[in-house]
Structure formats: structure tokens, C-alpha cells
Request: fold
Amino acid sequence: MAQTKRTLTPPPHCAGIFSLITPFNASLTTVYTVDAIETFRELKADRVDIYVRYYQPRGLTINDYTVDDKLNASIVTLRAGDGSLIEVPDTYIASYPGDSGADHKHLVLIADLGLIPDYMDVNYIAGDVKDVLTQNLGVTSDVYMAVAPVNTKLTYSQHIQSERQRRGNVSVHVSKDEQIANLLAQVEALRKRNEQLEQLVINAQP
Reply:
């Protein structure tokens, strides 16, 4: 294995799905961003014991380290959306976003909430959005509530009209999950009704 080893160094700030070689492991459903790249030469200049810090805890041998040292490998720090880090030699990177022909985008979700009265607490929405992202995309990401640099005052009548329209939208909108729950309830009601009818037929037989 030593003769076939090679360095595979991703570009700085590269983001997406990384495939690592055992004993290193990265989730294939988590987006990682290259947070730092340090060559062995740079680390040794800073008096870092590379073997003890990065190799030994993973059960790798001094020979594994020596082979990588001759290749002047680098330690790549990958940061996940939840802040967790993976420090991996670039000789243990099997693939990174963009190196194998699979294009990736770094997507950012932005929602314009419009004018919201100061007295209304909407911070809970950030947690709901975070749950939706994890449940549907497997992405763990921090969701922040920000205020756009616009200070708009409405007259009292304008405020009342705006609130009526906003609350009307809330009452009219039926979410996908709510639609599914309603349909499941209808199916269950029909199933019970069918059982009752079947029982009536059975009881009516001589």
C-alpha cells in the first residue's frame, strides 16, 4: 500500500462531500468545508509531533507516518456545519468535491419575512427550519435570524391591515405535513367505517 500512496489536497475553502480512507471517516450526508491546510514542513517548524497528534490516536504506525512524511503530505482540517472538526492527512483523502467530475454548489437558504412587528417573537422559526433541513437533507446547519437594514414605520391603520393579511395567510395555508395528517385521518375513518359495514353484513346473514 505504501508504494501506491499519493497526496490529494483539496483547494482552500472547498466545500461539499468528502470521502476518506480508513481509519479516517467522514459522513457522506454532511457538508464539510476545508478550514485549514498545513504541510508537514510547516507543522514540524511549529514543533508539532505529527505522529503523536494525528497518526497514533487512529492506530496508525510510525511507518505510515514516515511514508507520508516522504511525500511531504499535509494535514487538512475539515469543518462540519455543527462546528465539529476532522483533521486528516491528505494521503487519506479518497475524493473531495470537484475532483471526480461531480459538481457541487454551496447553497445558502434565505427567506424574506417581510415586515414583522417588533413585539412578535419569531426566533423559534430558526429551530424549526434547522429541523426541516436535517430531516429532509441530512444537513446540520446553524440557522440565524437577521434584521435587514431597513427601518419602516407603519401607521396604526396600515399595521392593522398588514396583520390581518398576514394572519389570513396563516389560516389559509395548509402545510404538506398537515395535508398528509388529514388524509391519513380520512383513510383511518374510512377503514373503520368499512369494518362497521362488513360487520353489519355478517350480522344480517341468516
